[in-house]
């Protein structure tokens, strides 16, 4: 220890000073007289006693200092241990409180809770009341499917397909019918996996849908998704008819961190799209997302508007891949099918975005959309978060329901 070394050095120097001081005093006292041998011995003895006392005092002090230092070392070690334990406890608490990353299937399963409760609870009740497979069982299953927003046509098709599946597999027990129904629904949905990832760039995505379906929100979430995938994305606010549509889209552009091209409310949508194309070319944008009006009450005007926009796009941006997505509100059930049929008459729809499934028991509409329209479902909304618009996976959807 540094202090101990210093103290030993100090003790040695002090001892030498005492020896010199005692000798000087003795010399001074005996300088004028003759000193006898006894007196010299007496001085030596006194010197030795004094030296021993001084040494003992310093040894005691050094021991005390070393004891204090050892105690300090022990205290520091104890403090270090306490601090380490405290840090470990805090880290454990943080890890416990950290939100767990929810996988797609779990998120989908949670989002479809109401649909699952509505459909599967009815199906389970029916199977619990029957001991044999007969027409009454099929009639009740058909009613359960229809009232779960799967639709009449699709429900009738599923029951016929279920009867064929039972014959094919020679199923005799009611308990096995549920598994067969799951297989039939999975087959209707197919192996489809929705994706909006560009096959090539640049790409233009037209987004259409009635007001209130979640069109603006979907555009914001799609922009965020594509940006995270590494694509430079831009929005075009071509829904100039609806009040506040431009402002809402601008809020989403800031939230997603992408550029937006806009005009004043009431402007010509085709003119906005023209400016958007020029900006996209100048800024080397990968994906241009165009928000369009959704006025189903006047199909002729909407058809004319979309026709003008497509002409501008074909003339100014012929090299771009084009895709039209229709946004449907999942809470409207069979009404969403009617909207999809009407929009499909106005323009070719490449894919569907079905929103608000997490707050609805009508997720069965996806089965009827697939069966009756044959339009692929690209994205489904299973939450309100910016990352809760998920790419549709038919197999996982069927698993989540059952």
TrEMBL record:
<feature type="binding site">
    <location>
        <begin position="355"/>
        <end position="358"/>
    </location>
    <ligand>
        <name>GTP</name>
    </ligand>
</feature>
<comment type="subunit">
    <text>Part of the signal recognition particle protein translocation system, which is composed of SRP and FtsY.</text>
</comment>
<keyword id="KW-0342">GTP-binding</keyword>
<dbReference type="Pfam" id="PF00448">
    <property type="entry name" value="SRP54"/>
</dbReference>
<keyword id="KW-0472">Membrane</keyword>
<keyword id="KW-0675">Receptor</keyword>
<protein>
    <recommendedName>
        <fullName>Signal recognition particle receptor FtsY</fullName>
        <ecNumber>3.6.5.4</ecNumber>
    </recommendedName>
</protein>
<dbReference type="Pfam" id="PF02881">
    <property type="entry name" value="SRP54_N"/>
</dbReference>
<dbReference type="InterPro" id="IPR003593">
    <property type="entry name" value="AAA+_ATPase"/>
</dbReference>
<feature type="domain" description="SRP54-type proteins GTP-binding">
    <location>
        <begin position="376"/>
        <end position="389"/>
    </location>
</feature>
<dbReference type="InterPro" id="IPR000897">
    <property type="entry name" value="SRP54_GTPase_dom"/>
</dbReference>
<dbReference type="InterPro" id="IPR042101">
    <property type="entry name" value="SRP54_N_sf"/>
</dbReference>
<feature type="binding site">
    <location>
        <begin position="291"/>
        <end position="295"/>
    </location>
    <ligand>
        <name>GTP</name>
    </ligand>
</feature>
<dbReference type="InterPro" id="IPR004390">
    <property type="entry name" value="SR_rcpt_FtsY"/>
</dbReference>
<dbReference type="GO" id="GO:0005047">
    <property type="term" value="F:signal recognition particle binding"/>
</dbReference>
<comment type="similarity">
    <text>Belongs to the GTP-binding SRP family. FtsY subfamily.</text>
</comment>
<keyword id="KW-1003">Cell membrane</keyword>
<keyword id="KW-0378">Hydrolase</keyword>
<dbReference type="InterPro" id="IPR027417">
    <property type="entry name" value="P-loop_NTPase"/>
</dbReference>
<dbReference type="InterPro" id="IPR036225">
    <property type="entry name" value="SRP/SRP_N"/>
</dbReference>
<comment type="function">
    <text>Involved in targeting and insertion of nascent membrane proteins into the cytoplasmic membrane. Acts as a receptor for the complex formed by the signal recognition particle (SRP) and the ribosome-nascent chain (RNC).</text>
</comment>
<dbReference type="GO" id="GO:0003924">
    <property type="term" value="F:GTPase activity"/>
</dbReference>
<dbReference type="GO" id="GO:0005886">
    <property type="term" value="C:plasma membrane"/>
</dbReference>
<dbReference type="GO" id="GO:0005737">
    <property type="term" value="C:cytoplasm"/>
</dbReference>
<keyword id="KW-0963">Cytoplasm</keyword>
<dbReference type="GO" id="GO:0006614">
    <property type="term" value="P:SRP-dependent cotranslational protein targeting to membrane"/>
</dbReference>
<dbReference type="InterPro" id="IPR013822">
    <property type="entry name" value="Signal_recog_particl_SRP54_hlx"/>
</dbReference>
<dbReference type="GO" id="GO:0005525">
    <property type="term" value="F:GTP binding"/>
</dbReference>
<feature type="binding site">
    <location>
        <begin position="209"/>
        <end position="216"/>
    </location>
    <ligand>
        <name>GTP</name>
    </ligand>
</feature>
<keyword id="KW-0547">Nucleotide-binding</keyword>
């Amino acid at each position: 220890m540094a202090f101990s070394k210093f103290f030993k050095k100090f003790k040695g120097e002090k001892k030498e000073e005492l020896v010199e001081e005692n000798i000087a005093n003795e010399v001074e006292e005996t300088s004028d007289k003759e000193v006898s041998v006894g007196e010299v011995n007496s001085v030596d003895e006194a010197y030795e006693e004094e030296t021993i006392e001084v040494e003992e005092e310093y040894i005691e002090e050094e021991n005390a200092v070393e004891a204090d230092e050892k105690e300090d070392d022990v205290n520091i070690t104890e403090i270090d241990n306490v601090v380490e334990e405290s840090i470990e406890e805090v880290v454990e608490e943080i890890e416990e409180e950290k939100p767990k990353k929810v996988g797609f299937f779990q998120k989908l399963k949670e989002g479809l809770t109401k649909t699952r409760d509505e459909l599967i609870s009815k199906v389970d009740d029916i199977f619990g009341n029957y001991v044999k497979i007969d027409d009454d069982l099929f009639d009740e299953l058909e009613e359960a499917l229809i009232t779960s927003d799967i639709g009449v046509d699709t429900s009738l098709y599923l029951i016929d397909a279920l009867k064929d599946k039972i014959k094919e597999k020679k199923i005799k027990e009611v308990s096995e019918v549920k598994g067969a129904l799951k297989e039939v629904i999975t087959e209707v949905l197919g192996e489809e996996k929705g994706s909006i990832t560009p096959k090539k760039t640049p790409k233009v995505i037209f987004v259409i849908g009635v007001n209130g379906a979640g069109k603006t929100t979907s555009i914001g979430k799609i922009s965020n998704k594509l940006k995270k995938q590494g694509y430079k994305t831009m929005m075009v606010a071509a829904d100039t008819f609806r009040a506040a549509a431009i402002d809402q889209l601008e809020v989403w552009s800031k939230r997603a961190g992408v550029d937006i091209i806009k005009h004043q409310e009431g402007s010509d949508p085709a003119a906005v799209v023209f400016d958007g194309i020029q900006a996209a070319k100048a800024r080397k944008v990968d994906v241009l997302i165009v928000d369009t009006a959704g006025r189903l009450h006047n199909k002729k005007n909407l058809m004319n508007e979309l026709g003008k926009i497509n002409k501008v796009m074909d003339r100014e941006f012929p090299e771009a891949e084009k895709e039209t997505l229709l946004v449907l509100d999942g809470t409207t059930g069979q009404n969403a099918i009617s909207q999809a049929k009407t929009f499909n008459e106005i323009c070719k729809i490449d894919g569907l975005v079905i929103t608000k499934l997490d707050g609805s028991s009508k997720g069965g509409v996806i089965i009827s959309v697939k069966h009756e329209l044959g339009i692929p479902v690209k994205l489904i909304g299973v939450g309100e978060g910016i990352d809760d618009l998920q790419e549709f996976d038919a197999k996982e959807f069927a698993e989540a329901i059952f």
